Amino acid sequence: MMAEKFIVTPCESLRGNIEIGGAKNAVLPVLAAALLTEESCTLQNVPSLSDVDSMRILIESLGAKTTTTGKGTILVDASNITSLEAPYETVGKLRASFLVMGPLLARFGQAKIPLPGGCPIGSRPVDLHLKGFAALGADIDHSHGFVTATANKLHGAKIYLDFPSVGATENIMMAAALAEGQTILENCASEPEIVDLANFLNSIGGKIRGAGTDTIKIEGVSRLHSKNIKHSIIPDRIEAGTFMVAAAITRGDVTLTNVLADHVKPVTAKLKEANIFVEESDNGIRVFCDKKMDAKAADLKTLPYPGFPTDMQAQFMSLLATASGTSVITETVFENRFMQVGELKRMGAEIKIESRSAIIEGVKSLTGAQVVASDLRAGAALVLASLRADGITEITGIHHIDRGYDHLELQLNQLGARIERVSEKTIDTQA
Predict the structure, then answer these.
(1) What is the DSSP string of 291-333?
(2) CA–CA gap between residue 370 and residue 382 (Å, rounded)
(3) CB-side exposure of 45: number of CA atoms within 13 Å?
(4) CA dihedral 47, 76, 59, 48 (to 10 degrees)
(5) What pLDDT sits at residue 229?
(6) Is residue 119 flagged as an active site residue?
(7) 41-44 and 73-77: which strand pairing?
(8) What does residue 19 show for φ and ψ, rounded to 5 degrees?
(9) Which one of 14, 39, 139, 344 has the fewest CB atoms closer than 10 angstroms to its CB?
(10) Burial level of 172, CB count in 10 A (0-12/13-18/19+)?
């Protein structure tokens, strides 16, 4: 077997322009939603990510066809669905795979999905999804590691989510799009990716109002039509935030294009609090530093949108590890999302964990080390930390990083980083 790792050599401040790609967390539910219609649809601004590849493999295993028709453009044809059961091998790689349940249940009256996999960042149960399906009239059976949902016909209902789960909001919204009558979804997630999914559903004949607020109203329709529809995926706010922090941690000067400033407001606010300059213009967002002023400590708490995103917590920790003063990060969304801490400490960071908070004493410099990316955002945090470290850093487990970034090393190298992707032999434990 062959694995890959990053070899990172210290660099000067990052400088230049970077174009942000389509949002991973927006394209995955839209690919699932394409199962709701028997007509083909075209998706644009689709990022080239391993998670996107996994979702394409999943819907193709159900009988859908996906065709790349140009850079960042995919044609999806779900006219001939041949299976209502998702294969365990594919679902185990991608938590977002559970999002096919709502569309299959709504269109065909049945779906059988293994419990999903994904990053080991804490409990992300699907019970809210299932409560929503049950409220719409589905019978739910959970046995042998599979969840089976069946319904002769879904009916609109008033559903209150115990927590504003993004996945549950998306799954229930897709199921309700073909339900009979009105569905009112309360205390739902309001992330930009929810709005993008609603826009896609509306473009193919759905009737959804309120996306982006905590109450969404869905008027069910009998059929969705996608002929000649082209939907462009929104820019990735987490990718944008990652490059904003990359500019800050190297005390550089980077301008981001194809980015929506409103979507990164929480990151912008915290960067400014940490003595980093952020300027918005018609051309994009510029992040730069005053050489006379170093980054300073800042406290943050992760919250559902529009709060500070949990997907940016790890990257921001790398920045605060090099800032002057004491910072406190409180993680309220996932209970096990400080997996980067041990590896950052190997690089010289001074971090203590107390319950769901991390106390960070800024140090003047980090040092290169051999570290392991345990999940997607923790991996990104290690890459950012390595840009500021003295000495060579080796990062293994970079397949996690590839789930959410399109060749992150090439993008950073374009700005002046020195990162090499190399193959390494791994031990075949089955030998």
Answers:
(1) TTS--B---EEB-STTSB-GGGHHHHHHHHTTSBSEEEEE--S
(2) 10
(3) 20
(4) -10
(5) 87
(6) yes
(7) antiparallel
(8) -95, 130
(9) 139
(10) buried
